[in-house]
Structure formats: C-alpha cells, structure tokens
Amino acid sequence: MRIAVGSENPVKREATERATAALNATVATEAVDSGVSEQPMTDAETRKGARNRAERALAAGDYDLGVGLEGGVTSLDDDLLLTMWAAVTDGETVGVGGGPRLLLPDEIAERVRAGEELGPVMDDVVGAENVARANGAAGVLTGDLVNRESALRHALAGALGPFVTDYY
User: Fold this and answer.
1) Is residue 132 part of a domain?
2) In a domain, 108, yes or no
C-alpha cells in the first residue's frame, strides 16, 4: 500500500508512518497546499485543511491513500485551544479524526488572536526555531507528555477507521 501525506514536514511523515505501521505501507510526502489560512482559527477551517491536504496528496501521484494532517486553534467559551485534525481518503471514502485539545496560555492565546501564527509564537516563547517541526506546541505545553507527532498520530488513527474496520 502506498500512502501520501500532504506535507513535507518530517513530524507529519513520522506520525503517518507510525499510525500506518501495521498496514505495511510505504509513506511518501507531497508538498500540497492546505487551501486554508496559515493559521486556521476554527475546527471547521482546520478540518477543511486536513481534508484538502488528503485529497491533494492522493491526486499528486500513484497512491492508495492520501493523508492530510492540519493543526489549528479553536475558541471554546473564552479560551483558545490548540487542535489537530486528520483526514484520509482513497478517492471515494473519507475518514476524519481529531487529536487532543490543549488550552493555550493567555500570553500565547492573545498573540494568536491578534493575528500571529502559533508556530512562530512558540518559537519566540521557547527561544528556538521550527518548534512545529519538532515537539510542537503540544510538546512544549505538556512537558512532552504529548508531543506533536503523537497528537497527530492519534488524530490519524481515528481518521483511518473506515479503512481498517467494517463499521463505517
């Protein structure tokens, strides 16, 4: 089985490889556009980005499945939460799954609400570069109890449901 993940981010590739290890799949990356803003601000926009990436990754080559992984934020009451969505498609069926939601600290939430992207904000807060290509905001905010790869992997595991069970 050949799977394309719609991103060249190594964390997204690793999450896909780990989530699909039991399928004996070969995972490739395809640089595709999410079709949503750089900083998705709602669950709906983040899910749409994941689905767009999955569809575009599948269309980019000779693949059995396309995978889209998208991180964003969502408001709940007065809080802003980090959220992750995954989508998988074979061109006919689409599976969707969500990852954990993590409350963003006030300082970070205020900057994101003001229009900054979460990735560069996290880089600034921790004094590092490319946090999104490492443990991610999830890892920073949980002391690596959950990191970006594991959060994306669990979202993807949920999205794989229609392809690994008969319940859908």
Assistant:
1) no
2) no
Measured between its terminal Cα atoms, the distance across the chain in Å is 20
Quote the strand ranges of the chain, DSSP E.
2-5, 26-29, 65-76, 79-89, 94-98, 102-103
| CA separation, residue 71 to residues 48, 61, 91 (Å) | 11, 24, 23
At 5, the amino acid letter reads: V
31 half-sphere exposure, CB direction, 13 A CA radius: 1
pLDDT tens-digit series, residues 5-40: 999 999 999 999 999 999 999 999 999 999 999 999
pLDDT level of residue 134 (50, 70, 90 thresholds): confident
> Given phi > 0 = left and psi -120 to 50 = alpha, else beta, which region is 143?
left
Give the count of domains, the chain.
1
Task: Classify residue 132 by its DSSP letter.
Answer: G
The residue type at 4: A
Q: 43: domain range?
A: 2-100+147-164
Query: Does residue 15 lie in a domain region?
Result: yes
